[in-house]
From TrEMBL:
Taxonomy of the source species: Bacteria, Bacillati, Actinomycetota, Actinomycetes, Propionibacteriales
Top-rank taxon: Bacteria
InterPro entries from the UniProt entry: DhaK_L_YcgS, DhaL_dom, DhaL_dom_sf, Dihydroxyacetone_Kinase
Biological source species: Actinopolymorpha singaporensis
Molecular function terms from GO: glycerone kinase activity
Entry's Gene Ontology cellular component terms: cytosol
Ranges for domain DhaL: 7-207
Protein name: Dihydroxyacetone kinase DhaL subunit
Pfam families: Dak2
An annotated GO BP: glycerol catabolic process
């Protein structure tokens, strides 16, 4: 089982930026139903800014990559999701500071730290119809695989599968956090945009680990 290098993480970010760009309209449509129709635009702008900054910064470690992405998202994305993802990347960076490359346990620790950042910032719980509904089961699934002695690839694949399941589980939920909560019961029947973009992120991690 190969560790994730700085180069691998740069690939994750570049691939995620491409996936967000390809899903920009989809994420906007999801947010149009229960929010203000900007999630795809927000994240696309943030990831493009992250790529620009990475090109300038030439990061030497995984923590440098994660921190550069975090600051780009926090400073360039106005919506709720920018600071939430930004805090996730920042906490993940802190958790792997000093490591030259990431083994399975490092990666799972970084994901757990990232989830902790989202929760610290947004105070959402599982069932509130937010990105936490994708992140929480994803992190739990990855931890279970690593605890059982599984590989990075297996852990990240389990995380991506669980995130997608969590994303779909947001459809019937009534939103209790963010703009969608203003709709009350009318938020039910729609998939949460942030849970969707989070599931896309976990799938990119799994795909990069698979190559
Ligand atoms: P905004 O709602 O400010 O326009 P975005 O559209 O970019 O921001 O992001 C909306 C997404 O942010 C939601 O779909 C949800 O997943 C996530 N979100 C909103 N508030 C919270 C929160 N308090 N905790 C976790 N996630 C949240
Ligand atoms: Mg929005
Ligand atoms: Mg907005």
């Amino acid at each position: 089982d190969l560790p994730m290098t700085t180069r691998d993480l740069l690939r994750v970010i570049a691939d995620y930026a491409a996936v967000v760009a390809a899903n920009r309209t989809y994420l906007i449509e999801l947010d149009a139903a229960i929010g203000d129709a900007d999630h795809g635009e927000n994240l696309d702008r943030g990831m493009k800014a992250a790529l620009d900054r990475l090109a300038e910064a030439d990061p030497g470690t995984p923590a440098d990559v994660l921190q550069t992405v975090a600051t780009a998202l926090i400073s360039k994305v106005g919506g709720a999701a920018g600071p939430l993802y930004g805090t996730a990347f920042l906490r993940a960076a802190t958790s792997v500071r000093g490591r030259g490359e990431l083994g399975a346990a490092d990666l799972v620790g970084a994901l757990r730290a990232g989830l902790g950042g989202v929760v610290a910032r947004g105070k959402a719980e599982v069932g509130d119809k937010t990105m936490v509904d994708a992140w929480d089961p994803a992190v739990q699934a990855a931890e279970q695989v690593v605890t059982a002695g599984g590989s990075t690839r297996e852990a990240l694949t389990a995380a991506a599968d669980a995130a997608e399941e969590g994303m779909r589980a947001t459809i019937p939920m009534i939103a209790r956090k963010g703009r969608a909560s203003y709709l009350g019961e009318r938020s039910a029947g729609h998939q949460d945009p942030g849970a969707t973009s989070s599931a896309l992120l976990f799938r990119v991690f799994a795909d990069v680990a698979d190559h």
